[in-house]
Amino acid sequence: MLSSQQQTQYQQDGYLVLPNFKTAAEIAALRARAGEIVDAFDPSGNISIFTTQEQDRRVDDYFMGSAEKIRCFFEEEAFDTTGQLKQSKALSINKIGHAMHDLDPVFNHFSRGPGMAAVAASLGLNQPQIWQSMYIFKQPGIGGEVRWHQDATFFDTTPITVTTFWFALEDATLGNGCLWVEPGGHRGPLRERFVKAGEGAASIEKLDATPWPDDTTAVPLEVSAGTLVVFHGLLPHYSAPNRSPVSRHAYTLHATDAASVYSSENWLQRTADLPVRGFG
Ligand code: FE2
Questions:
Q1: Ligand 1 centroid to 147 CA: how many Å?
Q2: Average of pLDDT values for 231-246?
Q3: Ligand 1 centroid vs 126 CA: distance in angstroms?
Q4: What confidence tens digit (pLDDT) does each residue in 86-129 have?
Q5: What is the end-to-end Cα distance of the chain in Å, rounded?
Q6: How is the chain split into domains, by residue range?
Q7: What is the dotted CATH code of the domain comprising 4-255?
Q8: Do the beta carbons of residue 151 and residue 254 sit within 8 Å?
Q9: CB-based contacts of 186: which residues, under 8 Å, 6+ apart?
Q10: Residue 82 Cα, ligand 1 centroid: separation in angstroms?
Q11: Is the dihedral of CA 134, 137, 142, 145 positive or negative?
Q12: How many Å lie between the centroid of ligand 1 and the Cα of residue 27?
């Protein structure tokens, strides 16, 4: 349960940093399981790159079909000019997504429980629905930039309720590409929407010309492993490329409130095979 002071701070800033939310043992279990998933991943025929570069948001059937699956996506810079991996598979994966929290017991255990339910309730999610999980590797040397965006772009609801739960699985520093946020920026407009564009495709739709923050208004969130950062779906955030020799693993969950209307145009939809659930 968050204190009233923490709740007030969240309302003011649009985010909250909760150090020591997860133990070293909990983190180790999740990291080990992610390693097993990557080990078991056979990339032949499934080369899918994840990039957030504005002119180049590549989506494909493999991405669009991952809403109810556990799939691995490569770093954009993982390949040489001949299409071969420049380093081991384990050091080439950008992320795993997007339904580990519902399909994998280890991820389910990490993602749910009384502690998570209490934080969600404190942030106003009365009937939380966890739509997505992502294990983000931010690999040493090649970990890609995630350009400025708002997560409500991907989880549009009326009214906007999407809330991000971002767990540091390793120390996140300026060197390895920690999060940057704009304190109070959640009071600004939603700038973009990522909407389905026919079968197996989606694209960015510009809604508002308000510029993204820069380093005069943004702050870096250098946090220790085990920290949970929660933030509002309208909070602009960004992370720089990782050019350092150390990775920056993180795990994220995105939840909305069932009382808000989830857009049928969002790329991520669930079928009756895997109904969306909360933190309990
Ligand atoms: Fe994000």
A1: 9
A2: 97
A3: 22
A4: 999 999 999 999 999 999 999 999 999 999 999 999 999 999 99
A5: 14
A6: 4-255
A7: 2.60.120.620
A8: yes
A9: 14, 15, 231, 232, 233, 234, 235
A10: 31
A11: positive
A12: 21
Per-residue pLDDT of 60-78, as tens digits, reads 788 889 999 999 999 888 9
List the alpha helices (DSSP H) in the chain: 4-13, 24-40, 61-64, 100-103, 105-111, 114-122
Q: pLDDT of 143-156, one tens digit each?
A: 999 999 999 999 99
C-alpha 17 to ligand 1 mean position (Å): 16
Q: What is the pLDDT of residues 24-49, one digit of tens each?
A: 999 999 999 999 999 999 887 666 66
Going from the Cα of 57 to the center of ligand 1, the distance in angstroms, rounded, reads 14
Mean pLDDT of the chain: 93
d(CA 84, ligand 1 centre) in Å: 29
Distance 218 CA to ligand 1 centre (A): 15
* Cα 221 to middle of ligand 1, angstroms: 14
Going from the Cα of 180 to the center of ligand 1, the distance in angstroms, rounded, reads 10
The token pair that represents 48 in the structure block: 């899918």
* Ligand 1 centroid to residue 38 C-alpha, Å: 22
- Band (54; pLDDT cuts 50, 70, 90): very low
